[in-house]
Amino acid sequence: GRMMAPPPTGPADEVWRARVRHFLERSRLAEIDAPLVPLTGDASNRRYVRVIPRGGDSFVLALYAESFEFDTLPFIMMASLLDQMDVPVPTVLEHAADLGVLALQDLGDITLQAHLGAGSDTDHMALYREAIDLITIIQRRGAELAAPGVLPFTIAFDVAKLTWELDFFIEHFLEGYRGATLDAAAREALTAECRRLCVELAGEPRVLCHRDYHSRNLMLHDGRLYVIDFQDARMGPAAYDLVSLLRDSYADLSEDTIEALIDRFLASTIDPPGGEAFRRQFDAMALQRNLKALGTFGYQTSVRRNPVYIQYIPRTLHYLRQTFGRTPRYDALRRALATLLPEVG
Q1: Under DSSP, is residue 40 helix (H, G, I), strand (E, B) or coil?
Q2: 179: how many CB neighbours lie within 10 A of its CB?
């Protein structure tokens, strides 16, 4: 997702402006002195800039931290894969791998998150159904197009990855942001329960996951949804992207809506797990994913000094409390957390 931010000043500002100028000098996309609008990026170290040529459509430059190999860039590999699936993604207009720059189609500023603040409920529901259908396409076509040795099929949410995310939550949310101190017993209880959750999730059958499929990474453009920020795609549980969309730290959905959308997903999945079994996977995945989100928010706030994510913490804690309330089988995890995080108690 991108929102307007005041342009930064100082040396860092000059550095990226110089890179943009180098790119425009060798590109035909716009004049060298075309107006630039910095866009706030996501939680990554990429920077995004909208370029507005005097004649012709605006476009967005993604500035990477360093130069890259175009053909093996995860964003490019995943973009071409999604393109083969007929999943709408921004067109790559041009690249300068040595400068670490990609020029992308400008999809505008209307994320699904932004639209939720404006459109009608019927309107929202249609878009959410479209978003659900895109997940089922990614899973079905992902299974058909899976090639050994090719990203994103070679990486997965295995025990190590899922556990790393929850360790990150302990370090950057509980300790870093909340200032909690864990004695040896509390730490041991918590990490043991986190590990149990991760072992359960890593044992689920794996499908292709976008991995950040929420309302800030779906853009409304030309009357349809476009998917962005898909460069971290990997294999994982079928509920992964669904949880990102329906237990989304950036958007409120009623439980009735969530149930209806899970039903739609199950109805259009090729090999649906049983409804009850799938809802158990959904709840387990929701716990892991919401804890992971808190880790990101804590890190962005306390380490990166980026206060924008603080507003999303209460909703995420609310989801955790709700999920724990529905699934007594995670009571041990809930108890291990509750002394440090009274909100989930």
Answers
A1: coil
A2: 8
